[in-house]
Amino acid sequence: xxxxxxxxxxxxxxxxxxxxxxxxxxxxxxxxxxxxxxxxxxxxxxxxxxxxxxxxxxxxxxxxxxxxxxxxxxxxxxxxxxxxxxxxxxxxxxxxxxxxxxxxxxxxx
Length: 109
Prior knowledge:
The protein has helices at residues 2-29, 32-42, 47-60, 67-81, 88-108. It is an all-alpha fold. Helix 3 (47-60) runs antiparallel to helix 4.
């Protein structure tokens, strides 16, 4: 009987701790700064797109002196495209593709 009471008390204490942890996580997730950081992880900013837009604007302006920096920014945007940060969706797709390749190779062996 004593063991059953101790076990029940331990379960109630564990449930109370888990509930408190869930509440603190929910409170921290409601913070706007945390939400913004999570959005940055899920979809990182596209630096090459910003460079491309700035380069096109400089190329389209009638001033002849802006053509050289505009061309440089446009070229830099294409160079940065290869170094763009991967988002979670692309990581998941690449992982699935890699796992499928491993399964195919195992089936050949």
